[in-house]
Each structure stands twice: as structure tokens, then as C-alpha cells.
Amino acid sequence: MWKQINELKKSLIVDENAEKGTSMRLTKGEPSRTVRNMESAEVLRRIEELIEDMIRSISQGHSPVLSSTNRGLWGNISFTEGVGLEMKENASLSETRFNSTTSRIKFALTLKTLAVCYKLIQTNTFCTKRDLYYNDPAAYSNQGTLDKIVDDVSCMLKVPRNSLHVLATSKGCIAGNLSYIEVDGRFIDCTSAKSGILIPAHVEDIQMITSEAKFILVVEKDATFQKLLDEKITAKLHPCILVTGKGYPDVHTRLMVKRLWDSLHIPILGLMDADPHGLDILCVYKFGSKAMSHDSPNLTVPAIKWLGVLPSDVKRLRVPEEVLLPLEKSDLNKAKDMLNRPYWQSVPLWMKEMQIILETGKKAEIQCLTAVAEDFLTDVYLPSKIKCGGWI
Questions:
Q1: Of 119, 149, 167, which one is at a domain's C-terminal end?
Q2: Which of 361, 348, 217 minimizes the C-alpha distance to 282?
Q3: Beta strands in 277-387 (DSSP E)
Q4: Rounded CA gap, 173 and 327, in Å?
Q5: Domain region containing 73
Q6: Residue 373, C-beta contacts closer than 8 angstroms, at least 6 positions apart
Q7: What does the alpha-carbon distance between residue 20 and residue 17 come to, in Å, rounded to a whole number?
């Protein structure tokens, strides 16, 4: 069974070495790129320089302005093989002005957030975005406002978000042949996890990653992840690692998948729904997202492959029509948006699968395979796809 996996592993390592060389050439002389585990002193220095610039502006009689690259525009994003989506060096800026009635509140909240981050870094303490919000909910009005400001500050300072010592609450889970030591010294053994272990908030700081896994399976949905564990897929395909971001992955889940790739260099396969949203989730792991493009080198795994459920598999297996779902307007809008993204031409086989979805007007969830047989996913589909190298 492992012949195809081992061949894929060899090819991915060769490809990664080539991409590293390309990446080094492309990024030489780019000090603005974020780096993993940035020293606290450097983050503090960047905050201090930002405040000094504001004081200098005020002393010269000018109204202070906070500027950061506009993370909402595809025009500010470029695509680089081996890295994914990246913020352009000459990207247009988004300004938050103190003398503007429309941005004055955001200006004040950004300074408030900077002050909290500065204190957290100085004292080497951490807090979650949720804790930060509930310290002053009246100021931020809603959690979404704070979340956006934290990401804006990360982009403004060009530092990884975790370097601000403000963490999101983890939602992703992991299970299978893996053990590691968390930042607090706890030994975590994922092998015996019956329902998965919550991915830690301090992914960058975990140590002693140990695994005999042959591959990593990234599962779109938590329900499928739990079904695979209930049916003892880690025993049937032993040894392997299962990861789920429970839909669109949070930063911690993406960091973990990236960390496992960097540490283990084993194939990473995606199990997603055969619809535009499932493929979009896989693209987030592979290429990154527009909103977090300033931190793509720390988050993307360009080596990830699409194992299933492929739309062509749905046709080949003659999955009953009654378990397929018609495409909704949101699906069509998502497909149209994806076809215009800068990375789409780099995955022609994925494009062909998307065309099948659009031509048939149907989408299929992973659960549709139970219409073939109740245990078809775990006993037949996954083992045969892995044995035959049925990924793209």
C-alpha cells in the first residue's frame, strides 16, 4: 500500500528543495516579510517606532495616520510557486486617520490594542482575542471588530499574529501517530485520542515532534473526522495522522499542518467535499488566504494534494443521483471567484475537477459515499486511493 506514498514523499522532498532555492532568490533583500517566532525585542521596537513616527507627525503640526497594506484587495496579492499568496511589496495602503470622523474610533481602538500588545510582550504573557474583547466589550462593540484590528496590527508591523501575544481560541483537532511536548512541558500523545486532541495555541513552541506516520490526512469536516476515528481508520491505514480544521481552518490549524510538514516531510493529503467550498478550503491550506497573505510563508503547505472526494470519482463510482445536491448561488459565486484567483492556472487538474462540478450542476459531500456502501469510505475508498496514488 505504501509504494505510492513513498514515491510521493520522494518527489515532494525534491520539489521542496527546488522551491526553497526559488524562494530564496525571490525573497532576497525583502526585510518586510514576516518570520516565524520573531524575537519579542524586535516586535517591541517596531511598536515603538510606530508611536515615535506618530509623535513626530503631531510635533510637526500634522494629524497622525496609521497605514497598513490593504488586505481586502486581490490587486495587492501576488502568487509565488512554493509559497502561495503573498502581499505585494508595492501594495496599496489603507489609512486610518485621526482627523477623519469615519476612522477616528478605529484609530483609537488600534492604539488601545497596540498598548495591550506592548504590555503583554513586555511581561511575556498571553491572552486570547476573546479575553481581550471582554476586558472592554463596550469599546470594541463586537468580537469581529477586535479580530480585524488585531490582524491589521499584525500586517502593519509585519509580524506573525502570535508574536503580538494575542491568541485565537483553537478549534482544530488532531489524532493518530504523533506525540510532542507543549510549551508548558506537557507530553501529548495523539495515538490514543479517541475523539482527537485540540490543536495547541502555541504551535510554534511545541517540541520533540515524534511520529512514524506515512502521511497526513487533512479532513474538511469534524463529523467526517470523528467518523474516521470511530471506524478506527488510523488502525486500518496505520500509521498516519488526521487533522481537521472543522471547516475553514483557523490560524492554529494551518500552523500545525505547516509545522508537521516542516518537521516530518511526509505527504499531506486533503479529504474535502466535492464542491467549490470544499476546494476553497483545500486552497487555503495550499495557497493561503487573501486576509493572511502577509504571513503566508508561515501558514501555507504548497505540497498538499487533493485525495478526494474528486468530482470525477463521484462520476466513476456512479454515486446515486438522489444523494447529490444541486449547486446553489453561493456555490456558483465561489466557483467564479476561485477561477479568477492568481494561483488557479497552477493546478490544471483541479480546474478540470471544478469544470465537472459546473457542468453537472451537482455537488457531493464526503458522506455521499455511504450510498455506495456504509463502510465504503474507510474500507474501500481511502485504502484504494492511497494504494493507487489517486491524488492530484
A1: 167
A2: 217
A3: 305-308, 325-326, 362-363
A4: 29
A5: 40-167
A6: 379, 380
A7: 5
| Residue type for position 222 | D
Q: Kindly provide the b/e burial profile for residues 243-252, where b requires at least 16 CB atoms within 10 angstroms of the residue's own CB.
A: bbbbeebbbb
Same domain, 110 and 245: no
| CA-based nearest residue to 174, from 154, 189, 196, 156 | 196
Among 151, 167, 183, residue at a domain's last position = 167
- 318 within some domain: yes
**Contact between residue 96 and residue 127 where contact means Cβ atoms under 8 Å apart:** no
- Asked whether residue 35 is domain-assigned, the answer is no
24 has a pLDDT exceeding 50: no
Number of helices followed by number of strands (H, E) in the chain = 15, 17
HSE at residue 193, side-chain half, CA atoms within 13 A, is 22
By DSSP bridging, strand 207-210 and strand 179-181 are: antiparallel
Among 118, 133, 134, 140, the one annotated catalytic:
134
197 phi and psi angles, rounded to 5 deg = -115, 135
pLDDT recorded at residue 80: 85
Count of positions (residues) in the chain:
392
Is 180 among the catalytic positions?
no
Tell me phi and psi for residue 29, to 5 degrees. Answer: 80, 20
Tally of domains in the chain: 2
What is the mean predicted confidence (pLDDT) over 255-268?
A: 93
pLDDT value, residue 32: 37
Of all residues in the chain, the percent with pLDDT exceeding 70 is 91
Is the alpha carbon torsion for 357, 5, 198, 184 positive or negative?
negative
Cα 24 to chain centroid distance, Å, stands at: 22
With respect to residue 82, please indicate whether it lies within any of the assigned structural domains. Answer: yes
CB neighbours (10 Å) of residue 92? 10
Say yes or no: 310 and 181 in one domain.
Answer: yes
Contact 340, 280 (CB under 8 A): no
Q: Which helix (H) or strand (E) holds 112?
A: helix 104-123
